[in-house]
Design a protein that fits this description.
Helix content: 55-70%
Shape: rod-shaped
Order of helices and strands: EEH
Distance between the termini: 94 Å
Number of helices: 1
């Protein structure tokens, strides 16, 4: 029986092994862009938290006024 060898694919220059094939190295611009996006998301989360607190305070105040008007206090 003859054995045939199977050629393995060669890695592209600049690629590094990740265990599941090859991944390209990140460019500094891509890394910076990624970090900028993360910073933007954090700012949005902080703003959402502030807005939720403000909305909660406003709703509690309105509920107090309504209870008073209805004589529930």
């Amino acid at each position: 029986m003859q054995s045939t060898s199977v050629a393995k694919p060669k890695a592209k220059p600049g690629a590094k092994a990740t265990g599941k094939g090859f991944a390209r190295k990140s460019s500094p611009e891509a890394t910076e862009s990624f970090h900028d996006e993360i910073a933007d998301l954090r700012q949005l989360e902080e703003e959402n938290a502030r807005l939720r607190r403000a909305l909660g305070e406003k709703l509690r105040s309105e509920n107090g006024v309504l209870r008073k008007r209805l004589g529930l206090n």
